[in-house]
Amino acid sequence: xxxxxxxxxxxxxxxxxxxxxxxxxxxxxxxxxxxxxxxxxxxxxxxxxxxxxxxxxxxxxxxxxxxxxxxxxxxxxxxxxxxxxxxxxxxxxxxxxxxxxxxxxxxxxxxxxxxxxxxxxxxxxxxxxxxxxxxxxxxxxxxxxxxxxxxxxxxxxxxxxxxxxxxxxxxxxxxxxxxxxxxxxxxxxxxxxxxxxxxxxxxxxxxxxxxxxxxxxxxxxxxx
Length: 224
What we know:
Number of strands: 6
Largest sheet: 6 strands, parallel
Helix content: 25-40%
């Protein structure tokens, strides 16, 4: 193991009522610093990731709140000498409890660089798109999904500060959004990933492939 997610979703859990974050309820907000210091002691060479959701760009009040809270936390951790290597952006788009506003590539780049200015790198850690409530024909939805996938891959590359892009699963057949277990969103029409229920590549797959084959102009940044 070379990478560790530490205090996962701490920013968004802090907005919920008691019970959403066991460690915060028992220890208080200082548990985040304690967790990062413990993880560093356990693996001095590991990459420590502070991961959260709905934090890819300021699309509405909810995303702005998540970004501001996470930024303030990372800023304080850094000021206290706590090493945080990566800010993770889960980027689960259009879920029922997340923003329904489409993220714009330039805004995502700006948010990535805002965090990176604190001395961290960026990962997109859990990408998928819930299409269930999007309007239009199936072709329209496929085109929308493909364009967003491409925009977010391009944002990662063009930002100059993003090192990883991971989808949260492989096929629509096995996504946590489409499955019917108690911990699933259980939305059969979400079609969130790059491969359909038969594991055939969708337009989103080819959009990502084409993005990775393109030449890019990397946005200027002072972060190495």
